[in-house]
């Protein structure tokens, strides 16, 4: 079987590649729909061309794109793809954690018992997820984010760098929590919330 195709050639792809290599995986190259990136190198790996190459039989790939909506769009465009998950060996992930397809857990992250992580989720560098949390599909928690126990992040929610969530709170689908904010009560879907404590400031445009 060939190496893993990394989808996306931006900065996030560098961290995904580093995680794959640390986990003992082989990287074949990168794919990106921006022609200006074709033929360039990322950490010594070539940008091979467009995403059309995902249609090759027996391909394995991982979405290395930080934008939650784009990950959703691409995963739905290629429903038969064997999406690979990546867990950095310098993270701590309890054996009871359930990890979905295409999700990534980066270096320094801690994921505690009985947490459920959906598909194409990003648990970024040094983030912590305590017991019995649920991170639904396409969630992204940024570096240094801290979730207490029994937090639920609904589909597509994004928590900015250094943010935190108190025990048992729920963050609605496609909500955004600003950097350094602290969520102490439930947040509605499609909101942007900032501050300590985090309060909704505006509604995001829905697709």
UniProtKB/TrEMBL annotation:
<dbReference type="InterPro" id="IPR050179">
    <property type="entry name" value="Trans_hexapeptide_repeat"/>
</dbReference>
<dbReference type="InterPro" id="IPR020019">
    <property type="entry name" value="AcTrfase_PglD-like"/>
</dbReference>
<dbReference type="InterPro" id="IPR041561">
    <property type="entry name" value="PglD_N"/>
</dbReference>
<protein>
    <submittedName>
        <fullName>Acetyltransferase</fullName>
    </submittedName>
</protein>
<dbReference type="Pfam" id="PF17836">
    <property type="entry name" value="PglD_N"/>
</dbReference>
<feature type="domain" description="PglD N-terminal">
    <location>
        <begin position="4"/>
        <end position="77"/>
    </location>
</feature>
<dbReference type="InterPro" id="IPR011004">
    <property type="entry name" value="Trimer_LpxA-like_sf"/>
</dbReference>
